Amino acid sequence: MLRLYFVAAGLLIAAILAAIAIxxxxxxxxxxxxxxxxxxxxxMVAGMxxxxxxxxxxxxYRARGLYGRGVWLPCAAQAIAQVGQVAAIVTSGDLxxxxxxxxxxxxVLAAYLLAIDxxxxxxxxxxxxxxxxxxxxxxxxxxxxxxxxxxASSTEVALQNLSVLLVSALVFDRVAVAQWGxxxxxxxxxxxxxxxxxxxxxIELGHDYAVGDTARLRSLYARGSVLLTVLTSTLVSGLLAxxxxxxxxxxxxxxxYDARLTFVLLVGxxxxxxxxxxxxxxxxxNRGELLARVKxxxxxxxxxxxxxxxxxxxxxxxxxxxxxxDLLVQFGWLGLTVLRQTLANPLRHILLLAxxxxxxxxxxxxxxxxxxxxxxxxxxxxxxxxxxxxLAVTGLAALPLLRAGMRARVEAVIQN
Length: 416
Hints:
Helix content is 85%, strand content 0%. It is mainly α.
């Protein structure tokens, strides 16, 4: 697999560099005025493709129970890359140097994982490399098996990024476009946090599915989806209460705050969050064909709704298109299919999740609104104090769950 990844990454890098040389992106995208734009883009894209083989090491970490190692090390590299970008901006301001500062730590980490860390953690990898045999038939078979998952993953990436391009093309108010770009960040952050929460659960669920442990599979899926719903609803309630203050600090009041846009994006993402566990579990239980069909239909629904609603409603129309495609297709088709195939009482479980959202989200939002109105002052200090108070109160509310007896009673409520 490692050899296959190296070949694929090398071919992609060569193709991208050739395309950039033949069709300069600066001319196609309207950045002729920006010095060295093409070189910076080439460094960025080639660097990101160069780290693809590290996915093999990450897969071994997950399969062998070292999930945290495959998370913390890339996070450290990402932090170094962010600091490097800031340093490059301050010292040189050169776009190529900024791209190198972002790419270099991640490429170095990928090389470290593949050459040093993975063989040190798993000594059998050293002998496996010497014994590895290459077969074109085997390689083609890997691509054929992976093709449905590639369609699903590519569609997911397109759904996350197309919205910015479509809003830029369909909305003529540049302030509204900037408003969408900034607000979309918080919805993307929320979705990324939810996805990270589901990954270890999905891996365990995939293991239970593979060994046929139906009882443990049902129990873990039910408890995992409840945990994901509680945490997501709590995050959404806090963001609804305090995002406007952070928005004002971030944009320095240069961009007006749109409460409707924020509400639609955050609440919609929160309600559809349980489907992310179904999505992750589907990747780990060989449901490639289902994923490909669902994601293709979701992309079609999203494009149709966005083209109909965005010219009329602006960014709010795009938010409705994103949320509707999530709820109708990813939750309504994929989520319900997985629930029906996994749990003994899927309808009862859906009602429990709906009850959690209906209680937790308004309660946390109301708490944040009360704290925000009670804390005097404004600016950064006001924002930090109100967030700290909200975290303290919600932490106190969760304290009883530290007791094993209370956790056991809560788990007993969750139906398999």
